[in-house]
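Notes from hallway chat w/ T.B., transcribed later so I don't forget. T.B. wanted the structure written out for a chain they're using in a teaching module, and asked if we could keep both sequence and structure tokens in one place. Agreed to drop them here.
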Amino acid sequence: MRDNRERLSITEEVDLIELIERLWRRKLLIFGTALTVLIAAVAYVFLATPIYQAKVFVQAPTQNDIANLNYGRSEGQGGLGVLTVKEVYDTYLRNLLSESLRRKFFREVYLPSLDGKVTDRGQDELYARYVKALRVTVAGKDTPDRYSITADLPDAQQAVKWVTLYARMAGDLAKQEVLKDARSDALVKAGNLEQEIASVQETARKRREDQIVQLREALAVARSIGLEKPPIISGNLSTEVSARMDGSLTYMRGSKALEAEIENLEKRPSDDPFISGLRAQQAGLAFFRSLDVPAESITVYRLDGDVELPDKPIEPRKLLIIVAAAVLGLLLGCIAAIIANLLRGRVRVGPGA
């Protein structure tokens, strides 16, 4: 049993040595195949179009960046609510990740950059290439509100331009949306104030009309009793009666005073000076009607760091391709040598059979 194992081990060693010797006899074939594959790989490395990658990170703006957006806003009752950084940045991210922006960039930037070089390709194929070249992804699991915009292009400067432009286009769309909503809120507030002002003015007008009716009735009573002037009452009773010359005792003011007061009320051009708080409401109305935040005064996102011009391409990976080609070439050469030996053995065995 032991002798059988030893003979088997010796046989395996002999077979391995014989295989190595046969491969060595075919070394020219092996190294020739490896060299051919290696030359092809080197040619690909130096002839392939290099791809450069530019990447930019975007994050939420600061409170100071949106300060002008909250001009005239407060958390007080009846006021416009304060816009938070999260609300503004969510609007930016919604536009950044939208298909409408991706399509707009494809039409306005990507297609014009081709200069008619691939006019034979369909729109779907071009769009698929574009989606691979320009990507928007979350920067990391620990920072879900931080996004990266990546462009892989043959031109390093163009890659930098694209990621910067894409971030800015999303910012412009978000600004338009935020400012439009802010303007709409201001106009709604102005409309509400206008209705409130009209309501209090109408109430004041009706109150004046009611007052005139009451004074006319008092005037009729005063005339009926021949009271032209307020009666002269001495002592503490005079003070008490004077203080109560309204309501049913209004006639005690006398017909002359009542006629003058009625005439004054009828000729009054406006009740506005007599309405409490009206001027503040009118000032608020004028403010919200004219409220218009300049787009350049707010920022809806921030770039996290500068966009650097890539100096080395990410593709092709020269060293990896050359090493892989060398290994693959040797492997193919060995396979070719083994096949050549097998074919040669069959040729030798054939005539003897």
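Follow-up for T.B.: The chain is about 65% helix and 10% strand. Might be a good example for the class.
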